[in-house]
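just leaving the lab so this will be short. what follows is a protein written twice so to speak, once as letters and once as structure tokens for the fold. can you read through it and tell me how you think this chain folds. thanks a lot i owe you, the record is right below.

___
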Amino acid sequence: MSSPTRPSAGVTPEQLATLSHEFRTPLNGVLGMARLLEGTRLTAEQRSYVTALRESGDHLLSLVNDVLDFARLGATAIDLTLAPVDIEGLLRQVAELMSPRAHEKGVEIAWAVSPGLPTILADEGRLRQVLLNYAGNAIKFTTVGGVLLTAAVTGEGRVRFSVADTGPGVAPQARAKIFEAFVQTDASHSTQLGGAGLGLAIVTRLARAMSGEVGVGGEVGQGADFWFEAPFETVPTPRRDLPLAGCVVAVASPNPIVRVATARQIEAAGGRAIVAADTAAALAAAPPAAVLLIDAALAGPRGALRPPADRRAVVLLTPEQRGRIDRLKSAGFSGYLIKPLRAASIVAQVLQAGAQTAATPIAERHAEDDRVAPASAPGVRVLLAEDNPINALLARTLLEREGCKVDRVAGGDQAVAALSSNSYDLILMDLRMPGLNGVDATRELRAQGITAPIVALTADAFDEDRRACLAAGMDDFLVKPLTHAALRDVLTRWTGPATRPAARPAGWTKAATRAKVAG
């Protein structure tokens, strides 16, 4: 399915792909090494220099992404690949992708959906791009509070996606022109916050391709509410259970975004939510049987936080606060939840806290959240095919921090040769390598019967590149600059417990043979 956008006679898609690769490959090295350096022992002065380096690199990457995306959308017809999309899962993914940037600024990002939201037929990649542009813009302009992603049915076959923030808002007279290319509503924004004014123009083009509309609401001084609405076909969706029916959950957080999002998720699961800005107010409003969700942001100046006596309580943490989990367990919390909160995790923790007795061993009370696990892939064997030595060093370092055992090759021919004599649990394949490129190497491996997961690791960031990789037989896609969070997510998806033989889709090799030739 294509939009009526006509191709431009200027820059070709192939030229844009080359530009994307040439820009993003060195940026991957700069940003990756800056993040690695931030994790080492530094003086305060050195840390300020590295932070400035990383922030400047992030700004440059944002500009590169916007310019290339804007040019790409003007150079070719916008093809839409329709498939069933779980809206709740999409909002969760976007919130978790943007959470490191939000937490670096000291703000929160969260999501919530209305009950009974259908599964829709849509181009998930394009929809994700709309939400990422909106969320990135919201985080950039928000300094206190946070960002809330929501979705709701607005009419027959229509769904509205909304990204609301607690930033400065948009003046009514600027709301129409803000979606035009190269427009800044405040001239100081371009120098203070960076940006070329292309992100919302990209959203507008994508919305038109989906027969949708965009707009912005909110109140000046109170925050902006950017929305995208379009008609979507739906697919039959099983009726969801209400696992928290009859449960009362009190949420104590100083952040209004956390309070609103958590309450909506509790209510969508059938529970009754009580919200308060501090623990004392939550206790005063909640019945004795209520489970308390207490934000770690309420901790004292030395980080001390204890649950109220004789009350069942779960603590809310950011991924960066993983080191406090054991101490908080010892203080009496029955479990923890990682922000941005996942609906399934809220349900599990509330039910476990409600059923908990003092004799229940802590280890049995809840499963570890993959975002704070000390190593997501201990002992996993990874073949890394990457010709750039700096990017190879970055990928190897991040993989080894996750417990992986890594072999590196510098070309597609070497990857094929390595897999003829060794077995691997996962293959990370760069696309542009000397000799046999990553796509052709993947085709060769699949032709030989090798069925281990192959993940593209590439600077080619366009949606067409993703589809080409999947068509060649790859299973997933990682875009440079490589981040620790994105890599951990891929490792969990393709080498975690869910990929064990009993849960593995038909066609996968057994654990014993892994990446060996089938048969």
